[in-house]
Every structure is written in C-alpha cells, then in structure tokens.
Write a structure and sequence with these properties.
This protein is α/β, with parallel strands linked by helices and about 260 residues long. The protein has one domain. Helix content is about 45%, strand content about 20%. The chain contains ten helices and ten strands. The chain has a five-stranded parallel beta sheet, with helices on both faces. The chain has a three-stranded antiparallel beta sheet with strand order 4-3-5. Strands 2-6 form a two-stranded antiparallel ribbon. Helix 3 packs parallel to helix 5. About 35% of the residues are buried.
Length: about 260
C-alpha cells in the first residue's frame, strides 16, 4: 500500500499576523474629533470600541476604513513591501518557498487582484527570506503533480500560475461576499472568515482529488490557520474542533498570534 502523499496547506490573516501594516482605522467621537487606531490596537481594544460605539460615544463614518478599500489597492501593495513582518511571517516564507497552496483570509476590502499583486511583489523583491529561485522550482514540482508542465514558462508566468492556485478572501469586498453568499455587511467578520475557510477547505479537497488522479497516491491533507484577533481565533478553533468530529480527511491546526498567552477550552 502506498504511503499517503502529505499535502500542506496554509491560511493566513494578513494584518499583524503576516505584516504590521501602516494602515489605520478611523472613528469620530462626539466632539467630531477623529481618533486613529492601528490594526493591532483595534484588534486588542475591539470589545471596548464596540461597547463605546453602542453607547454612542464613538462613531463609524465614510472614511473609517479608507485604508482598507479597493480605492487604496495600490497603497496596500506598496505598504506591504515596506511593512515590518509579524509572528506568522516565517511560516508564510516556508509555505511559499516550498510552493504550498495558501489562502489569505482578511477583513480588508481590497480587490482579490490587489491581494495577489501584493504577494507577487513580495516574491519578486524576495522580502525577508522569500527566495524566488527556490519558489520557481517548487512550483514546477507542484505543477507536475497536477499534470502541468511549467518547464518552458517564464518566471513571471510560473508565479502567476501559482498565485492563481492560491485563494484570496478579503471578506468585506462586495464581490467576495457575493461569491461566498454572505448577504449582509452586518455579518461579523469572524463569521465571514469561517465561511471563507469552509470555501477554502472544499477547494483543497478538490485539489487533493486531482493530485490523486494524476499521480495515483492518496493525499493526506494538513491545514494550518493563524490569526492575531481573539474573536477570529476562538471561532476558528471551535470550528476546527467541531468539524473534526465528523471529518477526518483534513488535519487542522489553528494558531493565535496576538498578544499574551491564551487557553482554549
């Protein structure tokens, strides 16, 4: 009996998990003054901020998420290249250098094209450990597992092929919400992320079937997800635990990359 082919897949939150972006969230107080929150500060104080919003002491307005919208796509790509790396960066580098399929599941509203372009820019500039030559060779091997010969392709075509296999879920983007059948912007982000993960898991199951059909070896699927936001972490952790009771096909791990130590019950 052939040994199962171990397939590693990754899913990452973006802000303060991969990169410490210079983006801000803006709210107004009752005096009309604008208050800025970094992404890490917003995640850390999220419950407190939500409470102040409900009390009417803080207010969202049309520029609250301006740094996270499609109109800021180019800024997002440029900021990503210059941003300081965060806790999951080394795992991201391992993932890409070895040519594994990944998903980005983020609360941002950028286009999926901008998310892909940002990763392509990181690769082309070999940011903090990314090795373009190693990545190209890894993608060629992965393509061969799918019956795709990339030996005569240019580097940019190979990277484009690879990123086309990966999945990008800026969960507050209208087109992404429509694709995931999320009907309202009022659905909490952590629940949107769960829907995105459901979608990604169905995708990697199909990828596993394609590889089995091509090379004739059963695939053992391993999937890791990391996020620095406690709400997202707890919901994904519960999801992984609950789904695992019925579904043994995917071996799941969920990692918290925010501040402090936490215990999951």
């Amino acid at each position: 009996m052939s040994k199962p082919n171990k397939l590693k897949y990754y899913a990452f939150d973006w802000d303060d998990n991969l990169l410490k972006m210079p983006s801000h969230i803006y709210l107004k107080n009752n005096n009309g003054e604008t208050i800025e929150y970094s992404t890490s500060e917003f995640a850390r104080k999220r419950s407190e901020i939500d409470a102040e919003v409900k009390k009417g002491n803080l207010h969202f307005f049309d520029k609250t998420f301006i740094d996270f919208l499609e109109e800021s796509d180019d800024k997002f790509v440029n900021d990503s290249l210059g941003a300081e790396t965060a806790k999951s960066w080394d795992d991201f580098v391992e993932c890409i250098n070895e040519g594994h399929i990944f998903a980005i599941i983020t609360s941002r509203r950028h286009s999926t094209g901008a998310m892909s372009r940002a990763v392509e820019t990181l690769i082309n500039n070999e940011k903090n450990g990314l090795n373009k030559k190693e990545i190209i060779e890894s993608i060629k091997k992965y393509g061969a597992n799918l019956g795709v010969n990339l030996s005569d392709k240019k580097d940019n075509e190979i990277i484009e092929y690879y990123l086309g296999l990966c999945r990008f879920y800026p969960i507050n983007n209208g087109k992404v919400m429509e694709k995931l059948s999320i009907e309202s912007t009022s659905v909490p982000d952590e629940k949107k992320k769960k829907v995105a993960m459901d979608n990604f898991e169905e995708y990697i199951r199909e990828m596993g079937r394609k590889i089995k059909n091509e090379i004739g070896i059963e695939s053992e699927i391993h999937l890791g997800f990391s996020d620095d936001d406690l709400r997202n972490y707890f919901l994904m952790k519960r999801r992984a635990r609950d789904v695992a009771r019925e579904d043994k096909e995917i071996k799941r791990r969920v990692y918290y990359t925010g501040e402090g130590e936490i215990k999951f019950k």
